[in-house]
Amino acid sequence: MSELDSIFNDDWPEDHRSGVVAVVGRPNVGKSTLINRVLGQKIAIVTNTPQTTRRTQLGIHTTDTAQMLFVDTPGIHDPHHKLGEYMVTVAVSALRDADVVLWVTDLTTLPTDEDKYIAGVVSKAKETPVVMALNKADLMQDPHLTEHADAIKALVEATETFVVSAADGDNVDVMVTALEKYLPEGPRYYPKDQVSDQNLRFIATEVVREKIILNTYQEIPHAVAVGIDTFEEDVHGKQYEIHATIYVERESQKGIIIGSRGSMIKQIGTEARAELEKVYGNPVQLFLHVKTLRNWRSDDRLMKRFGYHVPKSE
């Protein structure tokens, strides 16, 4: 028996289902929080800043009867630079391979122009079932819940709609169980204990970026990228040494990241290291540096360097 055979030597029923759930929605509606809730652990960074997610991330949820591949997409919005265009293209492209679309909306507000745009995009996938998750129910006052819910549901003809709270888990399990029936019959594509397809280097860049966003608020977030210079583990795989560079677009932003006498970058590094040690389960040495790359978000070459690249269609 090969190593691959042993990995996938899981028992599943003959009517086992597996497939792709594309999670779409405008920025900051709680897509990443919802996926983290479903998986029972954090695989996607979460902040209160819109457009935090920049690439698709795969969350793998396995039960006795199904394996659901949740694709966390960047928020669909009106882009103002090449990075924004990339993010929207990635999100829309995820719909093509989906077995079911999970459209996450914000129940605390009436539909926005971005919601209406997404409704048009989702409606084009006529053969794909659409399930709506009306999120942030924990923040709603009862008098407005029905009004907002009715307005959101009127945007598209969804197969099913669920009022949920990704923050506290209300109704999330019920929604996930319902999603299962829209998947085709098929085997498990990943081992049952695997929850993500992201490698350790990518996780490190995302965790550092999250801590920058949380600590600098509106001053930095969209102008920052993180690159891994070196990623080394000791011979026993018990400790990691990571050297990463934080890239910003202006010298003034570099000063904000570093902070007075290095206080900000020290704070970012401390928080990122602590979270990475939780994720990796091993000690981490993290060394951060800051460089300026002017207008990198509008430069195709630099965008590709950071992994934000969509191949041109034939």
Cα radius of gyration in angstroms: 20 Å
**Helical stretch tally:** 10
Strand order of the largest sheet: 2-3-1-4-5-6
What distance separates the N and C termini?
A: 41 Å
The low-confidence runs, each spanning 5 or more residues with pLDDT under 50, are 1-9, 46-54, 77-84, 310-314
The overall average pLDDT, rounded, is 80
Task: Provide structural commentary.
The protein is globular and about 55 Å long. With 314 residues, the chain is of the alpha/beta class. The protein contains 10 helices and 9 strands. A 6-stranded mixed beta sheet has the order 2-3-1-4-5-6, with helices on both faces. Strands 7-8-9 form a 3-stranded mixed beta sheet.
Quick tags:
single chain, 314 residues, alpha/beta, 3-stranded mixed beta sheet, 21% strand, disordered N terminus
In a few lines, what is going on in this structure?
This protein is of the alpha/beta class and 314 residues long. It has 10 helices and 9 strands. α5 (142-153) links the parallel β5 and β6 (160-163).
